[in-house]
């Protein structure tokens, strides 16, 4: 069976609308350094052009020259994806070369170790432009989790953080295997959320690798995953409930396996931003109280009630009616009786 991370024969480069897709390019870290330096030197165009169709790089074309031609003609780069290249920790030493226009960075499956994770977190501690960081499929161990937790305590710009499926590799049978971040590492990150009031989405264990019921081994993927640790669930619930969290979506594993799953109802009730637990299985949908608070939070019904803006109220009710979310309509009508009568 072909290794799913085999990069041979892959030389496509997608260039479109401010997005630079350099994944699966067999890049060396020195290639990335040159590109970052060129991007930083090139001034953004005075007038942003509408996105063109994706450009594909032919084997005869220079990667570097085509990247620069793209950025000077199309528009300034806001997203860079260098994922799925065996770059190692060295590439993280060039992050300071990124132009300030970049807000979305993908360094997934780059072979990053603890030193690389530390460099990224040090960069993000003072960075004021990156709002979305994706780095799944690297080697984030407990030491890496310490770096991430310290960064989250200080960073007030990042909105989305994706770090699931760490220690990904290929099993002896050629199938995918995954060793998620340890519970000790998760507990450190949970504690850090108490001090962060800007992060809106965090994904530590990808929901695609979890199932709503046993077995925890999927023969088609070769995945063997540990059971959900109730201590992890408790730590994240407490962190969200006892802080001014902005978290809207959290993925920490298959929460329906949490022995205290019913307590997530209280968390959703206390945290008006939270509306996604990373699982959409039958067990979640069957919990009417949980689904009610999910809907109320997703449509910002409590914020609308608190602010008393007529236009927002009408818009939210219309959206709830359109999608048949009766719980939200009932909540808004019941809690805005005085406002409606005016």
TrEMBL record:
PANTHER family: LEUCINE-RICH REPEAT-CONTAINING PROTEIN (PTHR24111:SF0), LEUCINE-RICH REPEAT-CONTAINING PROTEIN 34 (PTHR24111). Pfam families: LRR_6. It comes from the Eukaryota. Gene3D superfamilies: Ribonuclease Inhibitor (3.80.10.10). InterPro entries: Leu-rich_rpt, LRR-containing_regulator, LRR_dom_sf. SUPFAM superfamilies: RNI-like (SSF52047). This is Uncharacterized protein. It comes from Skeletonema marinoi. Keywords: Repeat.
